[in-house]
Each structure stands twice: as structure tokens, then as C-alpha cells.
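Researcher: I'm preparing a figure for a lab meeting and need a structural model of a single chain. I don't have an experimental structure, so a prediction will have to do for now. The sequence is pasted below. Please return the structure as C-alpha cells so I can convert it later.
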Amino acid sequence: MSAAADAGAGWRYGLLGAPVAFASVPLYVHLPHHYAQTLGWPLAALGTLLLASRLADALIDPLLGRWVDRLHARSPGRVLAFGAGAAVVMALTMWLLFFPPWPAALQWPGAALTLLLACASASALAIAHQGWGARLGGDALQRGRIVAWREGLGLAGVLAASVTPELAGYAASLALCALLLGMGWWAWTAAPRPQPVAAADAGDWRRPWQQAAFRRLLAVFALNGIASAIPATLVLFYIADRLQAAAPWPGLLLAAYFGAAAAALPLWLRAVARWGLARSWMAGMGLSILAFIGAAALDAGDAPWFLAVCLAAGAALGADLALPGALLSGVIGRAGDRGRHDGAYVGWWQVVTKLNLALAAGAVLPLLAALGYQPGERDPAALAWLAAVYALLPCALKALAALLLWRLWAAHPEDLA
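Model: Understood. Here is the structure written out cell by cell.
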């Protein structure tokens, strides 16, 4: 594991995290706002489409995890070939989403099918990549470093995705994503490879649910993930309408948020060395709550103050990115499933991530429409609801997640090492 933890091995494994994370910004942040503002789709209908496509996408993740486990049982080369195919599909479908070629009569089914393929290919690539990292193992700090390399470079991708649409447009942004996919896959081929494990029963998608430690960790991850998915879905609406901030503020604020997350990763690793994974994650949740409470009080013209919120919330995001994945890797190792069922665990982990994003889009956008908010709204009552749903609802969910994590840590500290 010393090779996996050094800088050269770390960036070779982690570089693919940049385009995978890059894709999440157009898919989950820009796409709802783009379709609502540019194409004029109603919020309720858009929320329904996003919910349906993401639910369908989530259903296939355990099957993808099973597939990846069986490919690992054959050879790492099979996994790399699978990742290459997923990357090609991902790049193509993302282009079609933002530059749809279909006529108006086929707009809805075309968008739904393309969105499903884009999300599924991104999931396939992420599961293959994350499963590879989980197989590298190590103690808590080493696992944290592996995840931090992947997520830290992922944040670099997110930063690029946050600013390139405003600087150069969606075409240049998607072309950059495709270039990063090629570079990341090439680096992955030279990354440290997991130790081979005899795994005749590899790919049992039911195996994770037989582990109580996994079920407990997943419950915390789900609550915390919903709390993070809501502001990710609404942030551009909040900046444009609640803060009434025009360009370059949206790109600057997103860059500050993700930049702070990247800068905080080494600090969270130091916290892990001193406090352990679970208590460090709880500290990150507490910082996030404090930041978003501040966001609820902001109004038109307060974009400079929101920059401070983004820096604090971004620092908290660093904990969310690096620490849960390290905890999951520990659960896999203690269950004796490393090298056999890693993809199954990561597949179900991705299901929860997708369900969080689906619920955020499918429930929150129609809720805001019912409360009287529409893009471009200037009614004070509607904007107050936007601020409450954007900032206060996530705080409540984060607090529940922190409480649950605390109770689990107190009752089952061995699960969270």
C-alpha cells in the first residue's frame, strides 16, 4: 500500500476522478437550470423527468457492480476495457443532452433516454474506478488517502466544470470533459493494481445487505447525501433569483465552493489521524450546518457574503467526499469481502447517491413550484421559500445524519474505524 499512497501512484489512480466529477456538474447542476431557463421546460415537469430517469438509472447500479466484480475476477485489463467503453458512451450522450438533435415532437423521450444513458455510463465508470480503489485496502489513513486523491482530483474537475461554461460555453466545456476522460483512463492503466484474489463467487449483489455494519453506514450516508443533493440542485436558482447575482458570480461562487473542498482535504486527513474517520465526518457535518444557516439569511445583493458561506460549506464538503468512502472500504475489509464483492458494495453505494439526487430534483422542484416559486421570480414570499428549501431543509437533514452517526459510533465503534 505504500506505492498506492505515494504521490505518483495517487495521481495515476485518482486522475479519472476529475472527468467523472466534471460530468456531475452539467448533469446535476447545470442541466435543470439550462432546460428550465433556455428551453422553457416547466419546473414540475422537469422534476418528474429527472426523478424518473435517475430512479431508472439507480436500479441498474447493483447489476453494474456485479458485472465489475466478475471482470475483476478475470483480470484488471477487462475492467479497464469496460471503463473505456463507458467513457465513450458518457462523452457522446452528454453532448446530445446539451445539443439535442431530435425534433420538437421527440424532445421529451429523446431527453429522457439520453439522460438515462449518460447517467448509466457515468455510473459504470465510477463503480469500476471506485471498486478498484476499494480493493487497494490499507488502514484508515491509507484508505483516506486513496479516496482523497480520487476526490481531490475530482474537485479539480468540478472546478473546471463550474467555470468553463461561462468562460467558453457548453461546447468547450463538454469537449474538455471528453479530453479529461481520455487522459484519466490512460493514467488509470498505469495505476497500482489490486492484489489478485481467488473469487469464484465474485459479484454477489446481495452480499452487502447481509452485513449490519454496511446497513448502518448506508443509513447515515443516505441522510447526509439528501442534505447535500438539495442545495446542489437549487444553487443556480438561489444565486440567480434570491441573491440576484449575474455573471461572473455563479461561476465564481461554485469555484470557491469546490476550491475550498479541495484545499480542506489535507486538513481532514490530519483530523482522521487525530480523531478517526467517524468523529472527523461529524465535525464536517457540523461545519456544513453552520454555513447553510448563514445562507438562509441572505438576500438580493448579498453575493459577497454568500462567498464566505461557499468557502465554509466547501471546506465541509471535503469531509463528505473523502471520509464516507474510506469508511465503506473499511467495512468491506472487515467483512472479508475485499477482492470479491467490492463492486457490489460500491454499486449499492451509488444507488443511494442516485436516489438522493433523484429525490432532490423530483421532490424539491415540484415543491417549490407548489409554493409559488418559478425561475426568474421576484415575489418576496416565493423567494423566502426558495431560501428555506435551499438552506434550512438541508440543515435539518444534516443534523439528523450527525445524530445518527454519533449514536452508531457510540454503539458500534468497530463499524466506523
